[in-house]
Each structure stands twice: as structure tokens, then as C-alpha cells.
Request: fold
Amino acid sequence: MLLQDVVSSICKATSWKNQSQKEENTVSFELEDGINLNIYSPDGRTVILYDTIAALPNDQYEAKQIVEKYAKHAVAACKTKETVVSLCDNNLILHYDISLKNGDVEINKSARDFLNDLMWWKKKALSF
Reply:
């Protein structure tokens, strides 16, 4: 299964049409309320779903406090969620890896689960 097959599967399941090719091997969907579904396939065997949860403030002390809060929630969430929170270029990023050996149903379920987790993390961001 190729990246375009994954995108086609998601488009069929959701009726989304507003995709864009940002870079080679990356397709993005701009959804409502500032939610984006970015789909990246580095090697044709794996797909990584990702989006920015929140940008960190420039103030180092404030940024450190926010990262510590996210880290505590991430440790607790790892028991029930398959998504991973990481820090990249002063942004907190949520990502989820999918093996392409899975069929359309698994890919669509994974995309739905990722978006649900993303909404959960973005709501957490509002409380920090």
C-alpha cells in the first residue's frame, strides 16, 4: 500500500477533498478548528500521522513548565493511547505510526483514533 492509497482510503471514508501535497511523501488535510491531518510516509512501509498540538512560548521558564505538564499527561496517557507527544522546533507534536501492511479499515480507524487523541491533547493545551 502506497501513500496515495492511504490518502484515497481516508478520502473515501470521510468524503474529504481538501488535501494538499506539502512535500514529497507528505499529504495534508486542513480540517476545521485549526486541526490538520498530516500524513507522511518515509519509506513506503510506514505512515506517520502528525499535527502540532501547541507552539511553546518564547519565555524559557514558561515553556519548561508547559513541557513538564505535557510530560506528566503523556506518561499517564501512554497506558491507553497509542499516540506519542514529542518536541520539535519549539512545538509540541502528536504523532502516530501505522504499518502499511494493515488494510483500509485499520488505516481509517487509526486516522480516527489519531484525530480523537489530537482533540484531547488540544483541549489539554487550553487548560495549561
Observations:
- The mean pLDDT is 86.
